[in-house]
UniProtKB/TrEMBL annotation:
<feature type="repeat" description="RCC1">
    <location>
        <begin position="269"/>
        <end position="348"/>
    </location>
</feature>
<feature type="repeat" description="RCC1">
    <location>
        <begin position="349"/>
        <end position="400"/>
    </location>
</feature>
<feature type="repeat" description="RCC1">
    <location>
        <begin position="455"/>
        <end position="505"/>
    </location>
</feature>
<dbReference type="InterPro" id="IPR058923">
    <property type="entry name" value="RCC1-like_dom"/>
</dbReference>
<protein>
    <recommendedName>
        <fullName>RCC1-like domain-containing protein</fullName>
    </recommendedName>
</protein>
<feature type="repeat" description="RCC1">
    <location>
        <begin position="95"/>
        <end position="147"/>
    </location>
</feature>
<dbReference type="InterPro" id="IPR000408">
    <property type="entry name" value="Reg_chr_condens"/>
</dbReference>
<dbReference type="Pfam" id="PF13540">
    <property type="entry name" value="RCC1_2"/>
</dbReference>
<dbReference type="InterPro" id="IPR051210">
    <property type="entry name" value="Ub_ligase/GEF_domain"/>
</dbReference>
<feature type="domain" description="RCC1-like">
    <location>
        <begin position="238"/>
        <end position="500"/>
    </location>
</feature>
<feature type="repeat" description="RCC1">
    <location>
        <begin position="401"/>
        <end position="454"/>
    </location>
</feature>
<feature type="region of interest" description="Disordered">
    <location>
        <begin position="177"/>
        <end position="233"/>
    </location>
</feature>
<keyword id="KW-0677">Repeat</keyword>
<dbReference type="Pfam" id="PF25390">
    <property type="entry name" value="WD40_RLD"/>
</dbReference>
<dbReference type="InterPro" id="IPR009091">
    <property type="entry name" value="RCC1/BLIP-II"/>
</dbReference>
Length: 506
């Protein structure tokens, strides 16, 4: 659910190290994973990865990830990619996707992750090409090769099949939450519907109070889930890795995966999307329930400035609502997917959002859904360099190293020091960030993380499973530094309930 890498400025995007240069410059937001030698790089993990230890207990503090055994002699880490529900992903220096942390009782996520548990292992993809990017949603994954090809697998409803299914169902039926305190995955991982089932989906309860959340969110009943389980095997709901068909000549540079939707960014700055779009998270201007073939998303061409009357342009007397003023920039350089919303960054540093807005996660000053990309006008004049999105929140970092956040804040995931939702971007001014220059950002379901120019890592938000890496299970509503002695953070990537860190020894 995170935006990819940030080298602190403009960088020529290459499909792989020392490979052919592509057409345009694209900022790669969130870490320095592509630079330097990876031979001494380390990967640390913390949070809930049940298959990562025999006890299946949450990891409350950073733990070094074991390298795969031979025949992968000489193996080392290139990058970390987060992961989905109960599994982790990273990329080796040879361009292999490495997965671990899954267990055989976690259903769909177990299949999606390659059934790799305590020992990291290469995921079996139908290509020998080197991978440069990867991302995971609830239970689907997507990866990019050094030739700009895209592979995806997991939930069948997230995998392109060439179909477009009409407008989203409008039912807001309130049904009983699905939650099992002994298995956190049942709290949010809604199973794909059967062919005859009615679409109600979204995310379930996390089991922690939140009466207001329970009244707002759409749910799937325990009875319905049980019926689906009894009539369909997990395998029948899954798709093996397949090549995504794009227009001739389209080369993808990076990808992002949300709850049930995927965004892909081409080397010329064009965004493509597919999957579930019922809240507008595919930015196509309507509540298209399912887009099962990649569609270009018109981000800059049709975007308007936000409806926020406090924006700088509004204060100058320009009445912008309903008018199609062009946003700054010529192409898109960064993408991020949340649970049911999306965010993109233009080459000029403008931030655009679209999708579900119930918690203010689009940053438009309201809680309305945004069906098309719309500029976050309150950030105009601030050059945004990186963005990440969680289940209900969004965090972005600026060129000057500041951190802004907005959206749902039930567990302190915005880092503002309070637990109040924010419908407009809020600048983080915690004392812990004084003189700190953020250069990379990532979001889990309800927690957030940044890395700094100085090589530090900070986490905040929900911590029930130790996903903040602070040695306890207490939530934090301000950024807190995760101490890893003798290491410099290079990239951070959050999964749903865990965090991965790429680091180098000092």
């Amino acid at each position: 659910m995170d935006m990819e890498r940030d080298r602190g400025g403009k960088a020529d995007v290459r499909m792989a190290e020392d490979e052919e240069e592509v057409v345009v410059d694209v900022d790669v937001v969130a870490g320095e994973s592509g630079s330097g030698s990876g031979r001494d790089r380390l990967v640390f993990m913390w949070g809930y990865l049940p298959g990562a230890s025999r006890q299946r207990a949450p990891l409350l503090s950073p733990v070094s990830v074991r390298l795969p055994p031979s025949p992968a002699a000489g193996f080392s880490w290139r990058d970390v990619c987060g992961g989905g529900c109960g599994f982790a992903m990273a990329i080796s220096d040879t361009g292999k996707l490495i997965t671990w942390g899954s267990t055989d009782d976690l259903g769909q996520s177990y299949i999606t992750s390659g059934k790799h548990g305590e020992i990291p292992e290469p995921f079996p993809l139908p290509t020998e090409a080197s991978l440069v990017r990867a991302a995971a949603g609830w239970a689907h994954c997507v990866a990019v090769t050094d030739h700009g090809k895209v592979y995806t697998w997991g939930w069948k409803e997230c995998i392109p099949s060439g179909k477009v299914v009409g407008d989203s169902a409008t039912s807001d039926v309130q049904e009983k939450d699905v939650y099992d305190g002994t298995n956190p995955f049942l709290g949010e991982q809604v199973r794909p519907r059967s062919q005859t089932s009615k679409v109600v989906g979204g995310s379930g309860s996390d089991g922690r109070g939140g009466g207001d959340d329970n009244a707002k969110r759409r749910r799937v009943s325990a009875g319905k889930q049980a019926a689906e389980s009894s009539t369909s095997s997990e395998e029948s709901l899954s798709a093996l890795p397949c090549l995504v068909t794009l227009n001739i000549g389209v080369r993808i540079a990076t990808v992002a995966a949300g709850g049930r939707h995927t965004l892909a960014l081409s080397d010329v700055g064009q965004v493509w999307g597919w999957g579930y779009g019922g809240e507008g998270q595919l930015g196509l201007g309507s509540r298209i329930r399912m887009v099962s073939s990649p569609h270009p998303i018109p981000c800059i061409e049709l975007s308007t400035y936000a409806k926020d009357r406090s924006s700088p342009l509004s204060r100058t007397g320009m009445h912008l609502e309903g008018h199609g003023f062009r946003v700054p920039g010529n192409y898109i350089k960064g993408i991020a997917c949340g649970g049911r919303h999306s965010a993109v960054i233009t080459d000029a540093g403008a931030l655009l959002t679209f999708g579900w807005g119930l918690y203010g996660q689009c940053g438009q000053g309201s809680k309305d859904d945004e069906l098309s990309p719309i500029c976050v006008s309150s950030l105009l004049g601030v050059r945004i360099e990186g963005v990440a999105a969680g289940l209900w929140h969004t965090v972005c970092i600026s060129a000057d190293g500041n951190v802004h956040s907005f959206g749902g804040n039930q567990f302190g995931q915005l880092g503002t020091g309070v637990d109040r939702d924010e419908v407009l971007p809020k600048l983080l001014d915690a004392s812990s960030l004084e003189n700190i220059h953020a250069k990379g950002v990532s979001c889990g379901a309800r927690h957030s993380a940044i890395i700094t120019v100085e090589g530090q890592v900070f986490c905040w938000g929900w911590n029930k499973y130790g996903q903040l890496g602070l040695g306890d299970v207490a939530d934090r509503n301000i950024p807190s530094e995760v101490k890893i002695d003798g290491c410099i953070a290079k990239n951070v990537a959050c999964g749903w309930w865990h965090t991965l860190l790429l680091a180098e020894p000092t």
